[in-house]
Hints:
Elements: E1 2-5, E2 17-21, E3 24-30, E4 37-41, E5 51-55, H1 58-62, E6 83-84, E7 87-93, E8 100-104, E9 109-110, E10 116-119, E11 122-123, E12 130-132, E13 136-139, E14 142-143, E15 150-152, E16 156-158, E17 162-163, E18 179-181, E19 187-188, H2 219-223, H3 225-228, E20 231-237, E21 247-253, E22 269-276, E23 279-282, E24 298-299, E25 315-320, H4 321-330, H5 332-335, E26 346-351, E27 361-366, E28 379-382, E29 386-390, E30 418-421, E31 424-428, E32 449-452, E33 454-459, E34 478-480, E35 482-483, E36 490-495, E37 497-502, E38 525-526, E39 529-534, E40 550-551, E41 558-561
Parallel strand pairs: 10-13, 10-37, 11-14, 12-15, 13-16, 14-17, 15-18, 16-19, 20-26, 25-27, 26-28, 27-29, 28-30, 29-31, 30-33, 31-34, 32-36, 33-37, 35-38, 36-39
Antiparallel strand pairs: 1-41, 2-3, 3-7, 4-5, 4-8, 6-7, 8-41, 9-40, 20-21, 21-22, 22-23, 24-25
Amino acid sequence: MAAILLRGPSTIAQTPKIAVSNGTASLSWPLTAYYYLLQSSTNLSGSNAWFNVATASTESSIFSFIIPGDSTWVAEAPIISNVVGDNFVITQATTNAHQFFRLQAPFILPVCSFAIFYEGMLEFTKTADMHVDGTVYANGPVCVGTSATLVFNDSVTTTKTMSGPERDGWTPSPWNQGTTFNGHPSFVTNISAFLPPFGTNDPHVLIDIPPANEDPNSSLGQSRLYNQAHVLIIVTNQPSVSGTNIPWVTLILQNSVNLMIPGADPNKGKYTYIYTNNVFTNFTVAPSLQPNGIEYFLSVTNKFTDIREYQSNMFVAQINVGAYAAWVVTNRFCAGKFSSVSPPTILYVADRRNIGTNKLSVVRLVNGNQLPNNSGLGFTVGTQNPLYVKGNYNITADGVHFAYLPRSTTNNGSCVPAALMCDAITILSSSFNDATSPNSRPAAAAPSNTVNAAIITGNVPSTDVTTTTFSGGVQNLIRLQEDWDGGSKYVILNTSLVRLFSSQMATNQFRNPVGWSPAPISPYYTAPTRLWGLDPNFYNIYKQPPGIPVYTLPEYFLHLSL
């Protein structure tokens, strides 16, 4: 046997090993190569196929599909859970005189194929009851420890350590208090970090508006949701009148040309609206030629308060999702730009009226029961702003059959692949009242709400161990307002939770809810019961939400011959 170190992450300290006895080979490789594929071949010629023998990762097994134009890959590796010490172990008959093995990175790993994916510290400290189905990954330490029930039904992987440190003024004893690990292995520390597609250390660029001189076809340009989007709504103040708050709206329609990214469309439509006297006026097109305009789905006059951010009467760009779905298939501008073969699957919205003010600009989605179907390709909303989702979201594909889902069940076709990408996200109940929103405990108890979408967002990370410096943990990655009636109401999330960056606009620290111990300072909500789970549809490459980022691993690094 020979082992040759080629290249790869320095965190892999052990090498794969082969032991042969009576025609059987026992192969082992380190747990730190959790996401890699063990592959086999009978020779090393360039045209010979490498067969997937095993992997520990469901994601790697599913997404190790054949690369277009490359005949040397065979998809879907069997999943191995046989762990001995710090190694995975399998046995295999030695049927060939020459047999070669290697550890190989999967081609891609869509970020929402993970139940939870975190850039930075992942904290389950003091979480409510949570059952996690699907792999958990953190590019940072993982913190557990709760008096509730925390169950991981798949492996937890981290580039750092697993521990139960003091958080929110509380230290668990023992460190893994309340936690059950059902995965095989239960958890793996010090694994290799995934490589982001952003070409920068700041993943917030995914949702940012690019600078004017950036090439959409550049590596960074192609990663931006702004350039991947087909419909863009940019709200500013009227640029020609200093000191006014007259909303000025730019609508951009762009589509892929010659397989280029939509942002590179040389014939993109750009239409300018100004909002005065409760009317949107399009200054780009003569009145006689204007189709039904953006007033059909866009409002720029709503005002409400975010108590966590201490913001009242925020600038709000509100999208009526049901009305948008109808508008995009009837608007004459859209009809000339899109088709059923090439539908507009990504909507990007940015409200930039906060520039030069101390007010927060936000985006809110309402009437989102039914999303644009887009021939089954799905629908994604992205914004650089904090995002609010009022009421149910994506619970029916046909307006009749609803998907109110318990934890970790498929949606039975009742909703479409969807994602929400934003600076921070807050779920508001369908009874949320803008006029009474300054009250921390509205009189009317909130109803239950269901959201079926991958969530890619940011948070305000913990800065210390006290109650006023806590991030809120993974359960509060999705922010809440209102009185959710002491847990008798439900927030149902069929999702993948992805934290990629620190929030840059919604930057106030989390505060414990009403009734929490230690006693909270200026609480602003009572917690619901959260029913949360990974949407198993995200294991299907054809049901990935549009525009979600895709991560990779360093190239294969070890090569063995028998």
